[in-house]
Task: structure prediction
Amino acid sequence: MTQSRVTVIVDSRYGSTLALARAIADGVVSQGAEVRLCRVSIVEPEFSVDVERPDFVAAQKEYRELPRATAADLEWAQGIIWGSPTRYGLMSTPLRAFIDEVAPLWRQGALIGKVGAAFTSSGGMHSGNEVTLLTLLLPFLQHGMVLAGVPHSVPELVHTDKGGSPYGATTVTGFDGTRGVDENERAIARALGARVARLAGWVKPEPASVELAAYSV
Ligand SMILES: Cc1cc2nc3c(=O)[nH]c(=O)nc-3n(C[C@H](O)[C@H](O)[C@H](O)COP(=O)(O)O)c2cc1C
Result:
């Protein structure tokens, strides 16, 4: 059991990335750690999504009920796990906007030494899923954080025939989204949450001013 605190930040439109986020949060709690599950803003134009689809409407209702993430949620946690749908082989604009919004934390060096991990959902198996996952990890390195993935000792990672990656948790929902999130993908997501919770309990954050470093010769 660990006393660590983990913040999970998610963007999701049809609910599959949110399902991964919930499984990750369950994994965090399974270790006795505290979790905050938060969303980001909804900034995209409405025409880009299926606003009439029942699964979309239900997922958006659930999504909007989550608290909106703030910089304070990142400062509170020793572990941060963020994820979004894959959009054109990249993270979504709302999550990217949130990462830009918390830039003052970078200047303060506030996240140095914390543990970071990522997750994503994509329609296709080979259309940007892992690229998105890897690029979701890069801002953590810019913040001076240490990265966590999923080891192959997690049996579902060896047996999955859909999502799940050593680089983080993923799901592959299919071209029309009907494949959903399967049990292997959920188990891998839970394992990621549990691992970050444990690692975050061991690693000591080392906040240090980037500003001072810039002006010291
Ligand atoms: C604007 C847009 C761009 C997308 N780009 C990709 C893509 O590059 N690769 C892919 O596999 N799926 C792509 N998708 C599909 C989503 O990644 C997929 O539906 C995902 O499961 C949605 O996650 P959600 O259920 O959390 O909203 C795109 C969807 C939209 C709406």
Residues 12-18, 48-49, 85-89, 121-124, 127-128, 173, 177 surround flavin mononucleotide (CB under 6 Å). The two ends are 44 Å apart (CA to CA). The chain has a mean pLDDT of 94. The longest helix spans residues 183-202.
